[in-house]
Structure formats: C-alpha cells, structure tokens
From TrEMBL, chain A:
SUPFAM superfamilies: S13-like H2TH domain. Residues 99-118 are annotated as: Disordered. Belongs to the universal ribosomal protein uS13 family. This is Small ribosomal subunit protein uS13m. One of its GO terms (molecular function) is structural constituent of ribosome. It comes from the Eukaryota.
TrEMBL record, chain B:
One of its GO terms (cellular component) is mitochondrial small ribosomal subunit. InterPro entries: Ribosomal_uS19, Ribosomal_uS19_SF. Pfam families: Ribosomal_S19. Gene3D superfamilies: 30s Ribosomal Protein S19, Chain A. Belongs to the universal ribosomal protein uS19 family. One of its GO terms (biological process) is translation. It comes from the Eukaryota. Keywords: Ribonucleoprotein, Ribosomal protein. The lineage of its organism: Eukaryota, Fungi, Dikarya, Basidiomycota, Wallemiomycotina. This is Ribosomal protein S19.
C-alpha cells in the first residue's frame, strides 16, 4: 500500500490501473504518465523502485511545464481539477448564461430531455455554495407552512 | 488538446456567424437598446457595453453585453422557456 497525495495505491495493482484512482486520471492519461516517466506497462505499484516512485509522486504533486502541444500540458488532478471545474461553472453563472442557469437549477446542461429521469443532472449539477444560500433565502421568501418537498421544489427555481 | 474543442465548432475560414445591425454605431453612441430576433448572432468584441433586446419568443429581454460574453451567442443569455411553478388553483 502506497499513500500518495491522499490516495491509497494498492501494491498488487498495475501502475497504470492504480493511477486511475486519482480524480482526473483515466486510463489514457495514466498510460501517458507511465510513458513519460518510463514506467513499464506491466509494472506493479509494489515492484516500483524507489527512484521511479519519487519521480511519480513529484510528477503528480507538481506537474512539470510541458509545451502546449504535449498531451500532459494542462495536467491537473484532485483539488486543482475540482477547483477548475467549479470556476468554469461559476463563470457561466456570473455571465448569466443558459449553461449557468441550468447548473443552478440542477437540470441537464446539454439539451437532454427532462420529461422523466434526468437523475445524473440532479445529482451532479448543483452549485457548491448553493446549500446554505438557498436555505437562507427559503426562510426569508417562503412561509413555514410549505411542506419540505415543496421547499425543495421551489428552491431549485428560486435564484 | 483544448484547441480542438474551439476549432471543432466552426471552420476558421468562415469566421464567427453574426448579423450586421445597420444602427449599431448610432445605438452605441446613444446607448439605445437594439431589439433583435437574431439569437444566433455571435457576440463580437465591438458589442461590449451595448444593450440588446433579445427576443425570447414573446418579448425582447434587455441584456447588457460584457467582455465575458464575447464569442457566445446572443440567445445564450436569454432563456426561451418559462420555469414551471406549481399552483394549487388556476384562478390565482
């Protein structure tokens, strides 16, 4: 078990598989990283020599600046990536675009149907600061006699 | 990598799609609202600071163009659909 940047990498896993445990690294990215650091395709986490482990951890914690055409040029993981995603959404909220509005409502952003389901959007498309913002507004805007379900329904549309 | 996202939108040689507004310079001077139904018109850098009344299918909704809105379409900022709100009685 190797503990890297808050993620546990199990010893018996292939390096390229284990790296996908990071938020922001999929299989193709992890293969690119392995190629960049000359880690063998079949190497497992437990077998990695010390110098490769340190180069891997230094790569993940502080990615080197690469030319813009390089596949790993805008490489970001975990908190950095989450922050970037959040700021992208926040940008759309601030300019008042349709995308930002849909994010605020917890509805699909890219034109999917909402007649039924739209479960993924309901789960994912919410603003980070939305939780306490709406609760504060609810208490101001709505009488207490509303049921909690109606509260939730209304809060989705109250901006 | 990210460049493809932008380039895949439209051929570069075509340039952005836009409608020409004949009263653009005059409206910019007078700070008038330009009413338009051209929701598909790309917001160009020289629109910044102007006000457009963009048609939502019913009314012309005024929007103020800021620098962050460049390269999006006018209709991107004016929703066409009403939000559903439940009412117990129809008479209200």
């Amino acid at each position: 078990m190797v503990y890297l940047l808050g993620v546990n990498l199990p010893d018996q896993k292939l390096v390229k598989i284990a790296l996908t445990r990071f938020y922001g690294i999929g299989l193709s990215t992890s293969e690119r990283i392995c190629a960049y650091l000359s880690i063998h395709d079949k190497a497992r986490i437990g077998q990695l020599p010390e110098h490769q482990m340190t180069s891997l951890s230094s790569f993940l914690s502080a990615p080197p600046t690469l030319p813009a055409t390089h596949a790993l040029s805008d490489f970001k993981i975990e908190a950095d990536l989450r922050r970037q995603v959040r700021s992208n959404i926040e940008h759309h909220r601030q300019i008042g675009s349709y995308k930002g509005r849909r994010h605020g409502q917890g509805l699909p952003v890219r034109g999917q149907n909402t007649h039924s389901n739209a479960r993924t959007a309901r789960r994912v498309n919410r603003l980070s600061s939305r939780g306490f913002m709406t609760s504060a507004r609810q208490s101001q805007a709505l009488p207490a006699s509303f049921t909690s379900s109606l509260h939730r329904l209304v809060s989705r549309f109250v901006k | 990598m990210r460049a493809t996202e932008i380039l895949n939108k439209r051929s570069v040689w075509k340039g952005p799609f836009f409608r020409s507004f004949p009263n653009l310079t005059q409206a910019k001077k007078d700070n008038q609202v330009i009413k338009t139904t051209a929701r598909n018109c790309t917001i160009l850098p020289n629109f910044v600071g102007m006000r457009f009344g963009v048609h939502n299918g019913k009314n012309y909704i005024p929007i103020q163009i800021t620098e962050a809105m460049i390269d999006y379409k006018l209709g991107f900022f004016v929703p066409t659909r009403k939000k559903f709100s439940y009412r117990l009685t129809k008479n209200k």
